[in-house]
Amino acid sequence: MPVPIFVVDAFTNKPFGGNPAAVCPLESWRDNAWLQSVAAEMNLAETAFVVERPDGSFDLRWFTPEVEVELCGHATLATAHALWQTGRVRITDAPLAFHTLSGLLTARRSGDEIELNFPIEAPSPVLVPGHLLEGLGVTAVSVHRNRFDYFVEVADEQSVGDLQPDFTRLRQVATRGISVTSRSDDARFDFVSRFFAPAVGVNEDPVCGSSHCGLGPFWQQRLGKSELLAHQISRRGGVLRVTCDGDRVRLAGRAVLVTQGELLA
User: Fold this and answer.
1) At residue 90, does pLDDT exceed 90?
2) What value does the mean pLDDT take over residues 17-22?
3) What are 160-170's pLDDT values in tens digits?
């Protein structure tokens, strides 16, 4: 039988901006080889697969074109938007609950935005690994790491925007991804970033929600504020509201449904 599939642009209010994610609602789980093949076919940073439980909550998994990942923000936001937008969930004033490899995550409507509740993944200072700065081609102000990613702070926004990484070198760094960040030159935003994950098959992720589980506490400490407005300055670009709250972080943004269709294989 055909399987529905959608593409949603996340962390943007207009089509063809933000970060596109494929969302595939399933009646029951298919085998991992099929899930990975669909993700490779879609060839987006992540494809989300979601199965409803009898209690109305959902199991949620995310795949890049090459591997399954433990945490993904933009594809979770995209999944919530697709479930509401297509009428698969008709009650829109109650949070959605997702059971994932990173525990229970929730999504709720907040005005025109969707707010995700994720675990804080605060980074700590580390020694700089080989290939990291050479692959980025930058001088670092500081280098931190959490269990997923490296966080490289640089001097200014232009240094972030001008990055032209050597992805062959970066692929040799043992990490899911690398977030490069600085304070924003634009008074509307608190900080900017770009995110690179060649080791999992995504050279540059246009807007990485889960990296902000680390960027939030990183900039909270430096700026002395818990509510932050983030701008990921990839070519497509995206905006996130980031709120640090104890051991959780709330990530809010908008989304647009751009494609709906069926898988026939």
Assistant:
1) no
2) 97
3) 999 999 999 99
**156, pLDDT greater than 90:** yes
CB 170 within 8 A of CB 176: no
Looking at the structure, give the CATH architecture of the domain made up of residues 3-116+253-263: Roll (3.10)
CA distance 219 to 228: 8
The residue ranges of every structural domain in the chain are 3-116+253-263, 124-246
Question: 71: which 2 tokens?
Answer: 């945490």
What is the model's pTM? Answer: 0.95
Instruction: Give 250-259 pLDDT, tens digit per residue.
Output: 999 999 999 9
**Cα separation of 165 and 137, whole Å?**
6
∠ CA 33-34-39, nearest 5°, is 100
Bridge-partner residues for 204, per DSSP? 196
Active-site pick, 46, 113, 121, 204: 46
Specify whether 41 is catalytic: no
